[in-house]
Amino acid sequence: MGQRVGQNTDQFVRTGEILCSSIECYRFTTDIPQFPVSLHWHYFAEVIRVRVGSLKVCRGEKEYALSAGDALFITPLISHSLDYSSPGEHAEYDVIRLDLELFGDLPSSYTPDLRAMILEAEKCGCSMMVSAPDMHIPHMDLAIDACMEEYRRREYGYDLRIRALLYLLNPSLIPRWFSAGFTPQNYSSRIDPIYTLPNYIARHIQDPLKVEELAQLCGLSYPWFARKFREIYGISCKEYIERVRIRRVEHYLQFTDCDLDYISSHTGYADCSHLVRDFRKLRNTTPGQFRKAVRKKPQGLGEFPQNY
Q: Which of 223, 231, 240, 242 has the greatest count of CB atoms below 10 A from its CB?
């Protein structure tokens, strides 16, 4: 059960950290130099599951003591920090980062926008923690294990398989909210369009996206849009698009034999020379060298984020 702690969440900002793909998985320990993790927030969601030991997690105005097997869902824009449960205690934990836009189109005849429902459940104070015994009932623990393994192997179609697993994981929380009196409605219209841009950009990354047009899509002037985008995502909109393009290029290089002309035309580049230039700038290697290297070595889980 979370304990309330007094925090002014407006002063905690995450900068420079974005989700270049819709799902990322990490396995951390408390032994790394970056731990403990200071109070911060970001635009994407996270699922934190303790594997070994225990953690103290401040989430919004509450403090949680998570033991092995417990999981906590962090919704977007909620400030949170991770610390030792006891000074210097060793712990291991998994983190799944996901763009809630994945769940905006869950097909059902009666459920509203699942992404919007999750955000509204947060506002209503619904519990986002699942204890270890409850994790076993709808097999949520097995779903997280499977997500981590799929991401570690990263074989063809891994992102689709993880997405399917997360479709099982997130709706497992909903019956718990119902029992606490939560009633679903259609909340989609309440979401600021700027928070849905990652999904729009991902769906249209093959097009020549223009920042000015994205600003119009959000109903904002260009200067105000540019400022607000950087405040939320930590980088400019142009840089964000560039990183998403390169991530898409990496998928083509790893999983297909398509040539650079084909890849550039399907990732929004005018020609392959622009693709190679951006790839060198962001990855410090050529697409050809990357393709050879990534097909030789196993993938593994993600490393600790640079700006975590």
A: 240
